[in-house]
Fold this sequence. Notes:
With 839 residues, the chain is α+β, with helices and mostly antiparallel strands. 16% of the residues lie in helices and 40% in strands.
Amino acid sequence: MGEVYRARDARLGRDVAIKILPAAVSRDSERLRRFEQEARATAALNHPNILAVFDIGTQGDAPYVVTELLEGEALRQRIQSGPVSARKATDYTLQIARGLAAAHDRGITHRDLKPENVFLTKDGRIKILDFGLAKLNRPEEVHAADTPTLAAQTEPGMVLGTVGYMSPEQVRGHAADARSDLFSLGAILYELVSGKRAFQGETAADTMSAILKGEPPPLSELSQNIPAGLVRIVEHCLEKDAADRFQSARDVAFALEAFSGSSSTTRAAVSLSPAPVPWQNRSLLAGLGAGLLIAGIAFVVARHTASPPEPPAFHELTFQRGYIQAARFAPDGDTILYAAAWNGKPIELFSTRPEGTESSALGVTDSDLLAVSSSGELAVRLAPRGTGPYASSGTLARAMLSGGSSPRAMEDGIQFADWTPDGKSLLVTRRMLGRSRLEFPIGTVLYETAGWVGNPRISPKGDWIGFVDHPGVGGDFGDLAVIDLAGHKKTLDPGFSSIQGLAWSPSGSEIWFTATRAGSARALYGVSLAGKERLIARIPGILNLHDVSRNGQALLARDNWRVGIIAQAPGSKEQDLSWMDFSAVRDLSPDGKLLLFDESGEAGGALGQIYLRRMDGSPPVRLGDGTGCSLSMDSKWALTVPTPAKVGNQFVFLPTGTGTPRSIPVPQASVQWGNLMPNGQEILFAGNEQGHATRIYLQDISNGKVRPVTPEGVSLTSFTRFVSPDGMFFLAVESDGSSIVRSVENGERKAIPSLQPADIAFGWTGDGKSIYVYQPAMPVKVFQIDLASGQRRLWKELDPPDPAGINFIRTPHISADGKAYAYNYNRVLSDLYLVDGLR
């Protein structure tokens, strides 16, 4: 495919590899297409077990791609030295499976997985190479007109891949999906432990025939040191029918983790001849055999004649209209405590019992419930304020369930807390200096992240802490993880688009949690410490797990989530312009007459939907798929990002009227969002290069050149945006939560006068002399701050007409003349249930 050179990236001071397609070969359109497809497919991925792509371009007639530099050897070289131990083979294969899972989650199949395309670095890390035959899978509803940059798919009937590692469906020329990669993975694992290829004939035709009709020699015949559990994993990968194989790379990873965690990876050789049985024991063995046979028959009969298990029983506990922040079982196992904001009133604490229909107020107001100890002591969060759509912080305080005294304040800036099983100590999470920290005991940091740590709970034995690891501060996507008291973290179940709510099962053998991998309809799952996931319960709507009792009862809330829009057009009154279930405002035209928004919930589907709507309330017009960013000054174009954002690493201009969509590739950094500059010729955007923090970049649309604006190492949050009318400055929220003005030219900081600690700067007045700031917690007051004098004046108080269940106001958008505006509200209406019969 090309030549590879070691090179030096002078700008970032790092060694890289440059893969170049020779000029003579680049004139081969098919080879050039495959070279570009490999670069695009790999650049769309960001995973430690996949080769990182930094850049792609053309120098003269030679196309090139810049990647990370690897030191080590191809897996083929390692295999040529002889069979690999079962322990190392399991480790290598597990890393490959994790890399494939990341690719498959992005709709990318490798289709040419083989030892030559797997690299083993000097430190033992696996890297998957050469996605040159990768197929970008798109949902069937996506039409070519909506995806002008989508590469042509490989035609059915073409045989691609390396013969000895191809799946049966590839040999037949049929469509290949993720399960084809799993067949290839099984062939690699077979070769790792045996030193011999699973399928190899004298000719390519013989090899393909063996893949279609033959079976590889049993591993037990090739070596007696291969554990039976590993043999079963290999055999499951190499099933001829894709429906009989593992159905996902994540399933393979789970199986390998369970095998490595619960089984020895070596075993002694076993004699093929049975040991002689003394005659006096033979009658006993015969009797045992007959007994086991009868028991087996009885089990089969019972299994097919027994009544199906009863479904879980849901008993409703609450009947008001509003939002339930948290619910917990009291130490007696019957009393239920919860914090709720009913009918638009401030949040307070309540108690109820299953046999009743009324809830009693505990007299603790303006407080969230965090945890209840085994001795009946409450951990509450005083004066909570929203720090994002899904997170709040406040002052940690302790209070007795029996009452009689006011809560005693302990720590500031706390997001979550939980008691140890003995009720004597607390773990907490808090956000400091742009990092979310998990502390146990308080003050000792076990884990920290630039994202946020959600729902931490201590196991019944006190040896593990389960939590949700959210990589982004603005969303609830993330992974389920555990950490021990020494700070060793392990991800149990990754890749959820929405995950909230967590509790340990009564035995402590599983973590129960509510999550979904697509949309927003969370279901109840369980996962073992070995990473084995199972579905426990699913109902229509969004589930949120709050607690599990010692006898296995659960407190589950059914949450009705809506992100709506309230807007006011010039000279009109406020009106609700919500469209579907997650209508997110992205921009307002300068004259305040057009609203750009998108849908990313259940209605938006996997790709998201972008709309343009007149502020007079007429029905919106669907522009295309993805996430909206901003409108051009003449409102004829909408700048958008495909969903998921990393696919293709590009912006797409969608016409708001007639016209053809136009793609703008972004080769240097993965895109998070973008703002079209007032001159219409540049895009200011946030993104990050492989392994680096988020930076702000400026891209010239005409020539595609990208330059960094902010210095390397300066971390900014996803709230960064809003360009001044003259295009010279933009507003940013720093990693510590403070707002700042930065120069577009060189990223230099300019302080905002009269700024209060909780203020978020979000917009400019039309003359560029003042900015708007607000605090997202209810009630919301929006101020104008004059940048020269520091004068601060109230512009407007945002007061949704129906406040029930509204827990957060998202960033407003205001027209240049200040006469029109639009903002989002988060509304969550909760019903709490006591659930019996969960298994």
